[in-house]
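Internal ticket - ligand job 371, zinc ion:
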Amino acid sequence: MEPQQADSWASPGNPPMATEGPTAPPASMLDKVAGYESIAMGGEEKYLPPPAYPMPSAGGGQPQSVQQGSLPSISEDTARQALIKYASDHITYSSRPAEEMTFKELKPYNMYRYRLESFTESRKPEWKCEPYHNQIIHCYDFGAPPPPWEVAVDIPKMFEKSKKKVQVPQTASVKGCHRCMTTGKVPCDKCLQTGRVKCWVCLGKGYRLSEERCNHCMGSGIESCKSCTGYGCQKCNVCAGRGQLFFYIQLTVKWENNKFEQIIAQQCEFPIKHLSKVNGQQLFSDQQVQVYPIMNFPDPKVQQVSQQGIQEHWTQFGKTSRIIQQRHTIELIPVTEVHFNWKRKDHSYFVYGIENKVHAPEYPGKNCTIM
Ligand SMILES: [Zn+2]
Ligand SMILES: [Zn+2]
Ligand SMILES: [Zn+2]
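stdout (structure tokens):
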């Protein structure tokens, strides 16, 4: 039999191409599952709103009361040692001003850092369809599938980002493949099921330019189809040749740790951005399912910031995810402004953090190794 002449034949020399990409099953194949009516196959990042639950301030609960801590202000000796170390950390700085200075005033400031973390969980259900290889069908017993927020999923480590995919129980089924009508095979469209194609060497003519017989096809002008190795049909790529498909609803569960952090600073010349690199003394720490705004803190700005942070997280995450756990802390970060005299001139610098770091942009021992 002569191979059919078709324009869709493989071009000479090209490797055989897969005939079709994966073909999604039609929506009519998806079961109607109570609680999951609106979901589709595959999908964009569309996470479900959580069931309603009250915001902490509206739901009662005790706001947190904290006593103001205070650190003893640093001694002159500590202030001097910190500045000597600062000078020695810079190759071109002299430590002489730090060693010889006379202190005039040490002025302490209390800065606070409020930090809130909300550990959230979000859930996205979607239909999945894959070749059936005797997958395990998850079910509790016979009955309706649990709603998305009631599917039991173990929470991994708290306050750490992670993701899990689980099969929703009672949603799995096995169905015949729509693409190959359960045969596991589809017609080869490279050879139109004949198993034979035009010889790529002589382009079907049977002879070469010199009019000698083509020895690739022995003059016949045809060769066996590489796509289907001459069978005229190929393995169905939707069911991987199995003839059956496994359908189920998959729940993607995502955990994230969301942070809110703010420095509550007393007015002074010190650039507060440096405080992100140092530690303070922890005055307060609390962790629970829902934390409550701080109350009765001597500095009312700390209360405001705490209220703002908690409100922000609820507005931001409450609608698309469930807050599983929250924790918040208040740290007291010491900052001392030091005024001193050296060689009859007044200067100043700051010592900050429990590490006693120094900020001294006007240090008189700059840019000189010998003074
Ligand atoms: Zn040939
Ligand atoms: Zn073929
Ligand atoms: Zn199939």
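Auto-summary: The mean pLDDT is 85. Helices lie at 76-88, 96-100, 300-317.
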